[in-house]
Amino acid sequence: MTVEAFEISVADDVLADLRERLRRTLYTTPSDSTFWAAGVDPGYLRELVAYWAGEFDWRAAEARLNAFPHFRADVAGRKVHYVHLRSERPGGGTPLVLTHGWPSSFVEMLRVAPLLTDRFDVVIPSLPGFLFSELPREKFTRRGTAEIWHELMTETLGYERFGAFGGDIGGGVTQWLGALFPQSLIGVHVTSAVLTTDFSELPATPEEQAYLDHLAAYDARDQGYSEIMWTRPDTIAAALADSPAGLIAWIIDKYRDWSDCDGDLEKKWDKDTLCTVATLYWATASIGTSFRQYYDYPANRPVPPISVPAAVTLSCEPAFAGLPRSLPERLCSDLRHWSTPGRGGHFMAHEEPEQVSREIHAFFGPLS
C-alpha cells in the first residue's frame, strides 16, 4: 500500500496555454436583461475571465495550497489524493474525514480545517474523478466511495475509529460510512440530509409531504444542469474541457445559486478562490470525470438505517428550506444534534468556517 507526499505543480506551458485561451474568449449575448436571470451574466463572466487571464497569480495560489500537507495513496487499486492535517493535541486528535461535493473540491474544506486541529486529525480526500483522484474501475456510487474512504482511514492511515462530515455527495458518502461501518464510525455529520425514499411502511406526514413537494418544485426549476450530466456528460464535457471560460461559467453558476450569498457571488467567493478552483479543474482535465457521479447516479441505492450517532447542521439553501427533522430521523435512529443556523449554503465549510467548526466541536467533542 503506497503513500507518497504530493505537491501541486502546474507546468508553465499549461498556464501559458490557459491564458492564451482566456484572452481569445468569445462571449454570448445576454438572453435576459435582468442580472443573472438566464444563467451566468456575460458581463460578469467577461470581468472574471479578464482577471483570470491577467491579474490572477496562480503561483501564489499554488504556494498557498502546498502549505497544506498533500498525499496520494493507492486505495482499492486507484490513486486517491488527500490533505492530512495532524492535530496539535498531545497524544493525537480524533480522526475526522471531511468530504466535499460537486462542483467543489478539497479547497472547500481548507478554511475550516485549521480550526479543527486543536482536537482533530483532519483528512480531506478528493472524490474519485475529481482533480488528483482517479476514477474507480466500477461505477461511481456513494456507497463505493464510502468503502474507499473506510479503507483509506483504517488501512492506509491506521485509524481504528473516526468521524465523518460532509455535504452534497460528501453527505451521501458520510451517511453510507455510518450505515456500512458502525464499528469504525464514532459519528456522522451532514449539512444536506440524504432522504429515505422508502415510505411504504410509514407514509409521509403532512409536514414531510409538503417539504417533498417543495423539493420537487425546486428541482424542476434547477435541474437543467444535472439532466445533461446524467444523460450526455461527454457532450458538455467536450465544450468545458476546451474552453476555460465555459468551464468557470459552469462552476460559478452553481456557486452563486447554491451559496448563501444573496445573489452576490463574491460575498462568499472572491475572484482568487474562483480562479484557483477553476485552474485546478483545468490543469487536471477533470471536469468531465467529475460528471461520472451524475451519469452513474442510477447505480446508487437508498442509504440503509444508520445506528451510529448522527448530526445535521442544515444548509441554508433553497433545496432544504423547510426540511423537517423527522425526515433524517427516519434514517438515523440516534440523531443527537439538529441545528438550523440559518447561515451557510451548499458549500458551508467554505462559506461559514467558524460556524462549521463550532458545530463539529459540539457534536464530535463529547464522542471523542
TrEMBL record:
Gene3D superfamilies: alpha/beta hydrolase (3.40.50.1820). It comes from the Bacteria. InterPro entries: AB_hydrolase_fold, Epox_hydrolase-like, Epoxide_hydro_N, Epoxide_hydrolase. The keyword Iron-sulfur does not apply. Residues 4-109 form the Epoxide hydrolase N-terminal domain. One of its GO terms (molecular function) is hydrolase activity. Keywords: Aromatic hydrocarbons catabolism, Hydrolase. Its EC number is 3.-.-.-. The keyword ATP-binding does not apply. It holds the Pfam family EHN. Belongs to the peptidase S33 family. PANTHER family: EPOXIDE HYDROLASE, EPOXIDE HYDROLASE 1-RELATED. This is Epoxide hydrolase family protein. The lineage of its organism: Bacteria, Bacillati, Actinomycetota, Actinomycetes, Streptosporangiales.
